[in-house]
Amino acid sequence: xxxxxxVARVSPVESISSVLGxxxxxxxxxxxGRADVWDEEDPTSWRVRQAMAGCRTCxxxxxxxxxxxxxxxxxxPPGVVAGRLNRRPERTPRPDRPKRxxxxxxxxxxxxxAGSTA
Length: 118
Hints:
The chain has 4 helices and 2 strands; from the N terminus they run ααααββ. The chain has helices spanning 12-20, 35-38, 46-56, 61-70; strands spanning 79-81, 84-86.
């Protein structure tokens, strides 16, 4: 009788949680339910200034700062978090590939010139 190993299944929530790290509840946070203000990434926006001011007086600022510091830069959420503006990493465009010459058909000998017989 073959021995089957059980593979642990991971729920989508557990999968997302592992990518984002352990997100604290921050029940008393000023940003709770206000993603429209805190998710802004434009540093010239009034929303960013409003969010940063909200963070300065937030009772959850310490827990939020600790959580943000625990994340690698690549996993930090964009927008204002812990009084800091996090922007999405700029994507480096792929280098342009050299243009390919059109393929010749197997029987194609190229353009015919005057006086040539083919």
